[in-house]
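Quick check before the chapter quiz. The format below is the same one you will see on the exam, so make sure you can read both the input and the output lines.
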Amino acid sequence: MTHWQICCRPPLNLIYFGIACIRRIAIAQTSKAVALAIGKAMLDKKAVDVQVLHVAPLTSVADYLVIGSADSDRQTRAIADHIDGTISRLGRRALSIEGTATGQWVLIDFGDVVAHVFRQDARSHYALERLWSDAKSVPIPPDSKVVPDESQRRVATRKAAARKSV
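Here is the expected output.
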């Protein structure tokens, strides 16, 4: 054996590399599913010009941005509430919700996915689409199912009840 083989690790551990890639793909698929569920939830509440942007290659802040517009402050808050309720039924909780007091721009942070609900005049003023113009747009499938089936919903309810009793 040479000195290099005894004292140094190989420059690339292929087993670790394979595991890391598999986990990253699973995380990315989960992020994409959450982003599409947020987009669908926005459309359910009649949001206008909903866009899902894949920003992972451009920033480390989030993997996806979901942007939508509303006609009024009340509709903006209603869309934000619907997003929060829909995604919580999927088993994810928002890390932060900002802007519900004014209703002109509500930001909901899910960690790897960030949702922006604007009133239309505020959206044109801030123009996030121009800021993230290099991001790839992801189409929202019209027939995507957002809410999990009944068996998954019961499991999530049992886990939440178990946490409360402990």
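If your answer matched, good. The radius of gyration is 20 Å.
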